[in-house]
Amino acid sequence: MTSSSTRRFLAKELAAAAAAHQAADIVPHCPSCAKPCCKLEKLVLELEWKQVKTLWRIDEARTAFDKGLATGKGPEEIRESGGLYYVHGKPCPAYDDPSGSCRIYGQKLKPVGCTDFPIYEDQGDIMADLRCEAVNLTALKARIATALGPTFRITQSADEEFPFLVTLSVKKQGNRRN
Ligand code: SF4
Ligand code: SF4
User: Where exactly are the structural domains of the chain?
Assistant: First the structure.
């Protein structure tokens, strides 16, 4: 295998392992989660205007809404910066608390960040966010090892500033300088 085909193979297998962990271990846990991410107590949701307009059922024009935000008229949980909107401190309007589920699951309106949380493949690595209580790094690593076989070894590192953000990298065995 050439190095570019190896990279493509790894990216595909890691994305599949991340998706399988999401489907088997994360999503089924969401209805009983002790600290649902959708309450936005710890996480910040990044949205585009169309998503804000739809989810908050805003009738006014964007310029008027932005002016209201800038002058403290709220909604207090939304901040605008660089043309995007950041939500924190109140549950997402699409969150159905009684069922612990997302009302826009599977729809285009759902933010990409929600789909990626808490695990996704990024340029040949897997990123895992331990703020989700359902992330199981042992199970995830076992899943990756099964998919890739003994030729590859898995290494784990944490972000220095945000140690709950973990990176899993895979390297070919015996290739420790790369
Ligand atoms: S933190 Fe994890 S388990 Fe809890 S609701 Fe979010 S994705 Fe589901
Ligand atoms: S859009 Fe859905 S998954 Fe994303 S924070 Fe809101 S309720 Fe949760």
Answer: 3-32+112-172, 45-87
Pocket of ligand 2 (CB under 6 A): 38, 45, 92, 94-95, 102, 104, 110-111, 114
From the CA of 108, which ligand is nearest? 2
Locate 47 and state its tokens.
Answer: 């949205």
Q: Which ligand is nearest to the CA of 45?
A: 2
Asked whether 135 and 29 are in contact (CB, 8 A), the reply is: no
Q: Which residue has the tokens 């070919």?
A: 172
Check if 119 has its Cβ closer than 6 Å to any atom of ligand 1.
no
- pLDDT tens digits for the chain (178 residues)? 668 888 888 999 999 999 999 999 999 999 999 999 999 999 999 999 999 999 999 999 999 999 999 999 989 999 999 999 999 999 999 999 999 999 999 999 999 999 999 999 999 999 999 999 999 999 999 999 999 999 999 999 999 999 999 999 998 886 554 4
Distance, in Å, from the CA atom of 22 to the CA atom of 140, rounded to the nearest integer, reads 10
Ligand 2 atom showing the smallest separation from residue 109 Cα: 1
